[in-house]
Amino acid sequence: MLNIALFGPPGAGKGTQSEFLIKKYNLFYISTGDILRKELAEETKLGLEAKTIIARGGLVSDEIIVQIIEKTIKNNPDANGFLFDGFPRTFVQAYILEGLMIKLNTKLDLLISIEVPEEESVKRLLLRGETSGRLDDNDEVIRNRLREYDEKTKPVLDFYREKGNYKAIDGVQEIKKVTTEISIAVNKEVEKKQLNIVLFGSPGSGRGSLGRAIAEKYNLEFVSTGDMLDEEISKGTELGKQVKEKYDNGQLVSDEIVIQLIERKMKQSNNAKGFIFKGYPRTLVQSYILDGILMKHDAIINKIIELDVETLELVRRLDNRSKTDQCMPYDSSTAKIVQRLEDHTNKTIPVIEKYKEIHDVAVVNGTDCFEDVMGRVSAEIESSFRALD
Ligand code: AMP
């Protein structure tokens, strides 16, 4: 998802620049002003409530704004991202927007501030008033709107300046030039975006080989906590010794150790296009930990894939593997295989269920040959890459 807010005084050219942004980045446009004017024209309860405030050039209440934004977001669950015009308009609304973004498991990537001096705004709005038919495009109300902007809206900039995702653009230049500068700023954000995938599937579903192939194909870092633990043991590192002790005692490796390994991998791969997590998170606790790790790196999960393979087929595959030299210590007996499948059902399925409530989980048929499954998974990933293009 790509989420952008366009900021600037009335008459800065936000509407004009929006048209270009929506088309180029395939965003859903939310203009609180347009929505309010529509409500007003249809004389809805909400429109009538806002009417006198809009006519005076004041700001309507946050309650009304939250209602209309929530409704619009809810009605467009498949949007690639949102372009906000006229919101957030107060520093309170900046906090509200952060909250709404968390609910959508996304964030505001960039606030673009189109800067225009007051007299230029007045000149443009008076000109627009000759044809717009807007009840607030007249001299007195325009001054009021600009006063509201100075007093209530400008503090929003401090919020985003502190967060570091704000870009000022000079709005008193040719429209085309403003557009070019905006697209340079947005492209920079798009380039920074990572693709972080969590790959789920029962033992034997092909997660390991697929995960590795996907990482290579899309230039992502493969994060397999199991592999990382094995590597520590075989290298005989300090961590590896601790892990081995746990393994030998039949204990689970603690979350403290796994967090250190994931953090290290993420720091080492600072410039990665993204990460693909396999075998993590395995428990609800670990799902919260992963959210925490990603948050810390200002990243989010963009895609969740679940490989779906029937239980009988899983048992068949694991049993076959146990007879080859690829046999893992944990595949070496039927009892162990059953235990792993049970662990997956009892501990990991609830994690997938949790994700299904907040994310779009792509369930991919994991039977058939490797190439076919790889094709299905690639199609899922490419649809997400498109969303970031
Ligand atoms: P605009 O089309 O963005 O210039 O908005 C027109 C009018 O709608 C404003 O002068 C406000 O009265 C109202 N309005 C639009 N967006 C908001 C908002 N986010 N918060 C409060 N009032 C708003």
Automatic annotation (TrEMBL):
The molecular function terms in GO held by this entry are:
AMP kinase activity
The domain of life for this entry's organism is Bacteria
Entry keyword annotation includes ATP-binding:
yes
Q: Where does AMP bind?
A: 32, 37, 58-60, 86-89, 93, 134, 145, 225, 251-253, 279-282, 286, 340
Enzyme kind, highest EC tier: transferase
Which pathway does it take part in? Purine metabolism; AMP biosynthesis via salvage pathway; AMP from ADP: step 1/1
Could you tell me where this protein is found in the cell?
Answer: Cytoplasm
* Residues annotated to bind ATP: 11-16, 128, 173, 321, 368
Q: Could you tell me which residues belong to the region NMP?
A: 31-60, 224-253
> Which InterPro entries does UniProt cross-reference here?
Adenylat/UMP-CMP_kin, Adenylat_kinase_CS, P-loop_NTPase
Asked whether the UniProt record includes NAD among its keywords, one would answer no
Name the family: Belongs to the adenylate kinase family.
Q: Summarize the subunit comment.
A: Monomer.
Q: What does this protein do?
A: Catalyzes the reversible transfer of the terminal phosphate group between ATP and AMP. Plays an important role in cellular energy homeostasis and in adenine nucleotide metabolism.
Per its UniProt record, what NCBIfam families does this chain match?
PRK00279.1-3 (NF001381), PRK14527.1 (NF011100), PRK14531.1 (NF011104), PRK14532.1 (NF011105)
What name does the UniProt record give this protein?
Answer: Adenylate kinase
Q: Which organism is it from?
A: Carboxylicivirga marina
